[in-house]
Amino acid sequence: MKKKILGIAVAIVMLFAVAGLAACELDNPTLAEYQATARVDLTNYANSRGQTNFTIENWAVIQGHVTTGKAAIDAAETKPAVRTARDNAKAAVRAVERENNVNNYTRHPNSVDTIDATLENAIRKGFSEEPQIWYIFRYYGTFDGASAVMMGSTENFPGDWELYETVAGITFWYIATPSIIVWYENNFYSLTEAHAQYILTLENLQIIANIHNAI
After folding, report:
1. Which residues constitute the domain of residue 153?
2. 150 strand-pairing partners
3. 186: phi > 0 → left, psi -120 to 50 → alpha, else beta; which?
4. Same structural domain for residues 50 and 112?
């Protein structure tokens, strides 16, 4: 009887061991799988920069960085090396200058740029479980993948109020409107949070303030 119980116990332990190993393998991708994920991540990051924001020549430079980055990812022999290759390629892509990004905003401080429909839909879906009632009624631009927006809904905003927010010495005034928020890598941030986490630079904030406070 004891042998039978011992046999059952051993079988149970082996079952849990196999299950644990399977779970470990799911959470621990192979090097090839890790490389594939890194290649996709790099491509998506480059595309998120928006081809229309660059000259033909600079967009070609970005594509060159992606190609070189993918080659470095494939040549990496460890997961840390894969991450380094991906991050270096992202940094190279991020360093490519956009066309007239600052000048367009300073020339037209009272205008709000037209936001890409795909980007707007992503922000609306991220903002609410009912994206159909939300829309972006002020778009202040996208800076290194971070989009500054003000959300509105099909319902009227209640009340009448005046607020202000000061970030890095720059003041943003709000009169009966919501605050500006920042959409970056599928997450929302306040202007203060975005600046504190190095998502928006001081120059980015000044551009946004020039547009916002002039409206």
Report:
1. 101-214
2. 138
3. left
4. no
Distances (CA, A) of 144 to 42, 46, 81, 147: 14, 10, 24, 8
State the DSSP string of 66-134: HHHHHHHHHH--SHHHHHHHHHHHHHHHHTSPPSSHHHHHHH-TT--PPPPHHHHHHHHHHH-S-GGGE
pLDDT higher than threshold 50 for residue 192: yes
Q: Based on the domain organization, do 90 and 106 belong to the same domain?
A: no
Q: Extract the tokens encoding 68.
A: 């070189």
- DSSP at 169: T
> Which among 94, 117, 148 is the end of a domain?
94
- How many domains does one find in the chain? 2
Q: Are 88 and 69 in contact (CB under 8 A)?
A: yes
**Residue 52: predicted pLDDT:** 66
pLDDT in tens, 12-36: 444 443 344 333 334 688 999 999 9
pLDDT value at residue 113: 58
Q: Which helix (H) or strand (E) holds 165?
A: strand 162-167
